[in-house]
What we know:
Layout lengths: L1 E4 L1 H13 L3 H22 L10 E6 L3 H15 L3 E6 L6 H9 L3 E6 L14 H4 L2 E4 H9 L3 E5 L11 H17 L9 E5 L21 E5 L2 E2 H4 L3 H5 L1 E5 L12 E4 L1 H7 L9 H4 L1 E5 L6 H13 L4 E5 L2 H10 L4 E2 L11 E4 L7 H12 L4 E3 L4 H7 L9 E3 L3 H13 L9 H6 L1 H12 L2 E4 L4 E5 L6 H14 L3 H9 L17 H10 L13 E5 L11 H18 L15 H20 L7 H12 L3
Parallel strand pairs: 1-9, 2-3, 2-6, 3-4, 4-5, 6-7, 7-8, 8-10, 11-20, 12-13, 12-15, 13-14, 15-16, 16-17, 17-18
Antiparallel strand pairs: 1-11, 18-19, 19-20
Helix pairs in contact: 2-3, 3-4, 6-7, 10-23, 12-13, 12-22, 12-24, 15-16, 16-18, 18-21, 19-20, 20-21, 22-23, 22-24, 23-24
The protein binds ligand NPW and potassium ion.
Potassium ion binds next to β6 and β7.
Amino acid sequence: MIEAYSGGSIRAAEQPLLDEGLGGTLMRRAAHGLFRGCEEQLRLTEPRGTVVGKTAVVLVGPGNNGGDGLWAGSFLRSAGVAVTAILTGTRAHEAGLRALLAAGGSAVRLVPDGSGAGAPGQGTSEAMAASRPVGVEAAAELMASADLVVDAVLGTGARGGLRGLPAELVTAFRGGQRERRGTAENGTPRIVACDLVSGVDADTGEAPEPLLRADATITFGAAKTGHVVSPGEQAGGALTVVPIGIEERLGEVDVHRVQAADVLAAWPRPGATDTKYTRGVLGIVAGAPSYPGAAIMCTQAAIQAGAGMVRFLGDSTTRAMVLARSPEVVRSDEQPWDVHVQAWLAGPGVVGDESQAARVQAIIEAEEPAVLDAGALDAAARSVADGPLGPHKILTPHAGELSQIFEWLAGFGVADAPVRRTEIEASPLHWAREAARLTGATVLLKGATTVIASPVAVPGGEAGTQDTAASEAGTSDAGTSSAGTTDAGTSSAGTTGNGDDAAPGAAAASASEGGGRQGGKPAEPCLCLSVGDASPWLATAGSGDTLAGVLGTVLAHVAEHPDALAELGPWARGEGRWAAAAALGAGLHALASRAGGEGPVPPSVLAEHVRAVLTRP
Ligand SMILES: NC(=O)C1=CN([C@@H]2O[C@H](COP(=O)(O)OP(=O)(O)OC[C@H]3O[C@@H](n4cnc5c(N)ncnc54)[C@H](OP(=O)(O)O)[C@@H]3O)[C@@H](O)[C@H]2O)[C@@H](O)CC1
Ligand SMILES: [K+]
C-alpha cells in the first residue's frame, strides 16, 4: 500500500521542523535521497556500474525544489560526475548554488534565445548573476548531450504547469529528442524528477503540458496524491519515497494506493466452514438478444474470481449461451426482487431490452450492494433525482460514461454543469470525487490509473469501527443511513442548486462531512483509492465486462463479511468496504492483464488469468 498525501499535508508536517530551524537539514536529507536515485539511474547507463566521468544537467527552479536539485548536484559532483545547473528562474536557492559551485560544478543562467547577455533580473544573487547566460536552444542541447537530467524546476509549491522559459526549454528539448530519434546521435539522457515532475499538481495529479516525462521520481517524506493518480502518475516513472524525518507527523491520507501485494494478501479466500452461500451469491443482470457476449464475459469472470454462486437473469437466448459456456451458473426466470443474492451486477450488454431495463432499475432501488456498469449507468444517474444511491452501489464508468452521468446530473440540477470527457481525463480524481459526492455512490473511474471515490467518512481507525457497527443497516437504505452514521449536521445543499428539498447531492455531501477536510472547503467524499499497473493491452472491448464480473464476486463476499478486507486498513471496514472491494477487483483485473506476459489479453483469456492469479501453487 502506498499512502499518498496532499501537498498541504506535507507542508503542514514540515512546518514544525522548519520552525525549529531544521529546514536546511530536511533539504539535505531530501537532496541526498535524490542523489542516490540519480546514481542509480546513471549506473543503468554504464555497464561497469560507475558514475565517475558521467555528465548531469540539473534544471533548477526558483524555490526549494531547485534547492534540492542544487544540493543533489553538489553530491553528484563530489562523486565524480560533471554537473551543470541550468538556472531557469530569476532566483535560485543560495546555499544550494554555493554548495554546487564549491564542489566544482558549474551553473548557467537560462535566457531567451537571441537576448544576448540577458541582464540578470532584479534581486538576482551575485552567484547567479555571475553565471553564464545560455539561450533556450543551447540549453536544450546541453540537456540532450548529458547522461542524466534532473528536473528540479517545480515541486509542491507549483501553481499550474510550467510557464515561460522553463516551459520553452522542455518543449525545445523534446522537439530535439524527436529529431534525434533514429539518428546516430542517441542523445537520450535518463531523466529523474525531484519530488514531482515539474508542473504536475501534487494535490490533483493534473499534468498540463509541457512536461519532462521522467524515468524515475524521487519524492520526500511521503508520496503525494499527484504520484498515484492519472495523468501525473504516468509522467513520473518509477517512484521512490525517501524518508526525511516528517513521517510521524503526517496527517490524513488523501489517496490509498492499493498495490499487487495488497490484492493478493487481502483477496478473500474461503475458510473450512464456508459454503457457497457464505462465500457470496452474485446475481447478474446482463446481456440482451443483440449483446449476449457481454453477459458471457462478465459471468465467466465472476466464476473465475471465485464467486460462491452466480444467478443469471436475462433473456432466454442469452441465458442459453451463458449456460453453454458456464454450466455452473444458476439461471433464474424470476425478477430481482424475488431472488436472494448478496450482491448484484447489472448493466453489461443490456442495451435496448425493456425487460432488462426493468431489472436494472429494480437493482438500483434494491437494498443489496451492486456493481452498476455500462448500460446501467444512465439509469443510475437518472435515479439520483430521487435520492442518493449509497456507497454500496458501485458505478464503473470510463471518462466518456462519467461525462454522460454528469450530463444527467446537470439536467436535473444536481450538478452545476455538464463535464466534458477531456476535462475528466485531465483531472480524474477530482471528477470521481465530485461524482461520488453528487450521486452518493462509490465511483470507480477506469483509466490508465483507476481511481475510486466513495462518499464515506472513514479516515481512521475509530471512525471505521463506528461505521462497522452501522454497516448492516447501512446497506438497506444507504442514502440516508450514510448521512446518519456520520452525524453531519450541516449539509451543502446550497451548492446543488436544488432549493429547499434535500437534494441527493446534499445528502451525499453531508455523509462525507464527518470525515472532514479542513479549511472550510465544501464537503467531499473522503475515501479515495487508486489502482494502477494494468497492461495497456487491457484497452479492448470486453475487458470492462470482465472487470465487472470480478467486482461483483468480491462485492458479494464483503456484503456477507463486513470486515473481510480489514487487512487493507481501518478504512476498509464498514462502509469503507465497498470502495475497498472495488479496489481489490480492479487490482485483480490489472494483475490478470499481465499474468500471461505482456501482450494481447482477449477477455476470455483474461478471465482464465483471473483464476490463475488467485491459484496458489
Ligand atoms: N519545505 C521544506 O522543508 C522542504 C521542501 N523540500 C522541497 O521543496 C519543494 C517545495 O518548495 P517550494 O515551496 O519553495 O516550492 P517549489 O515547488 O520549489 O516552487 C515554488 C516556486 O516556483 C514559482 N512558481 C510556482 N508555480 C510556478 C509555475 N507554474 N511556473 C514557474 N514558476 C512557478 C514560485 O515563484 P513565485 O511565482 O511565487 O514567485 C515559487 O518560488 C518540495 O517540492 C521539495 O522538493 C524538500 O527539500 C524537503 C524540505
Ligand atoms: K521537480
